[in-house]
Design goal:
Elements: H1 2-26, H2 37-64, H3 68-79, H4 90-105, H5 110-190, H6 202-244, H7 246-282, H8 305-310, H9 318-321, E1 342-346, E2 365-369, E3 378-383, E4 386-391, E5 395-397
Antiparallel strand pairs: 1-2, 1-5, 2-3, 3-4
Helix pairs in contact: 1-5, 2-5, 4-5, 5-6, 5-7
Length: 399
């Protein structure tokens, strides 16, 4: 118990000394040991790295999970060391609603068939989104979070320790300065030759004794200063090594950033392919994809998955998507078969994608027929002198 009380009193004294030194520095009443310019530059770079890493981490979390309530829930699960429950992606939830709607409204109707096809595409989009979130969390968010919760905490701890060592050093310098000033004053008073006719010649003896006491105080202050300087130099070197390690952190974050871009590129490429397949199934062929065929920057490597995914394929034209045998087909030269023509009522308005298709208006009647080798989702439609391809899902065959 006695030992603990002594340690407590010693710690309280050190804390008080540091507080006094810090306060006097703030009011300009004490000198402060300044760090060299290179060290200050390392400190500034470390602070900037920490601040921007926090902002990038938080905003990436918002990008991957826009729902703030879900982010708070995931944060609480992580703090409690519990597994985060799996959550259905928005696309998958939409696919579920569409599938249920098709089942209730009629899966054989044109609307029901389309709902089913769109639901399947949305389900694939949701699965791709979940894979992207999982990959980005492991390859990008986790390294950033590890830096903030690991390396940065170590750097902060050593910086606080360096600050304490610096306060101890400057307090020792101030103590030595005061001791030397008092010693010089006592020495001057002790050098005065005493007048033995005085009634109090003992003043001379007291002055000599005070000079000796202050001399001992100077020796003690110099010893404390040497110890404080050694501890400060040692702590400054440790902190400097940690701060110089920020360069390695930048290299690691750069690698993680490349992986994040690759996963994001793969995700968007998958979404593009899924939607292109859906358009083909719905019979709404897009025109040529508008974009540049030359990359704006050189690829990372010839075998990199980023390069393959980032070079987005050009959207196919109608001729590219047409079944074999129809690519060179000129509808004006095709005569309707002698038998096999049927009447059909148009269910919805349809805007032709190109000259090979026939624009439709809801509730109009047209003649339709099929040709050998045609895609079963398409028919040839005639209205007067006009003819062209029409999607089956927009028609109700009458006879």
């Amino acid at each position: 118990m006695d030992f603990n009380m002594k340690k407590l009193a010693s710690d309280a004294g050190i804390f008080f000394t540091r507080a006094v030194q810090f306060t006097e520095e703030k009011f300009g009443q004490a000198e402060k040991t300044e760090l060299d310019a290179h060290f200050e530059s390392l400190l500034a770079r470390a602070d900037s790295t920490k601040n921007w890493t926090e902002k990038i981490l938080r905003q990436t979390e918002v990008l991957l999970q826009p729902n703030p309530s879900a982010r708070v829930e995931e944060f609480l699960y992580e703090k409690l060391d519990r597994k985060v429950p799996s959550r259905v992606a928005n696309g998958e939830l939409l696919a579920q609603y569409m599938a249920e709607a098709a089942s209730e409204l009629g899966p054989t109707t044109p609307y029901g068939k389309t709902l089913i096809k769109v639901a399947e595409a949305e389900k694939r989009l949701g699965a791709a989104e979940r894979d992207f979130i999982h990959t980005a969390s492991i390859n990008f968010l986790t390294p950033l979070r590890n830096f903030l919760e690991g390396d940065w905490k170590t750097i902060s701890k050593e910086r606080r320790l360096l600050q304490n060592r610096r306060l101890d050093l400057d307090a020792s310098k101030a103590r030595l300065k005061k001791a030397k000033a008092a010693e010089a004053k006592a020495t001057c008073e002790g050098d005065t030759v005493p007048d033995f006719q005085e009634t109090r010649p003992r003043n001379y003896i007291l002055s000599a004794s005070a000079s000796a006491l202050w001399n001992d105080e100077v020796d003690k202050a110099e010893q404390e200063l040497r110890v404080a300087q050694t501890e400060f130099d040692r702590q400054a070197e440790v902190t400097r090594l940690l701060l110089e390690g920020i360069s390695s952190t930048h290299v690691n974050h750069l690698r993680c950033l490349h992986e994040f871009v690759e996963s994001q590129t793969t995700y968007y490429a998958q979404c593009y392919r899924h939607m292109l397949d859906l358009q083909k199934q719905l019979g709404r062929f897009p025109g040529t994809f508008v974009g540049t065929t030359e990359p704006t920057s050189p690829p990372l490597s010839s075998t990199s998955p980023t390069t393959a995914a980032a070079t987005m394929p050009m959207g196919p034209s109608v001729a590219d998507l047409a079944p074999p045998g129809e690519a060179a087909l000129h509808l004006e030269e095709v005569a309707p078969p002698a038998s096999g023509t049927r009447k059909a009522r148009v269910l919805y308005d349809y805007e032709a994608a190109d000259s090979s298709e026939l624009a439709l208006l809801a509730d109009e009647l047209i003649t339709v027929y099929s040709l050998p080798g045609m895609d079963p989702d398409w028919l040839i439609g005639e209205r007067g002198n006009k003819k062209g391809k029409v999607p089956v899902t927009y028609l109700e065959l009458l006879s």
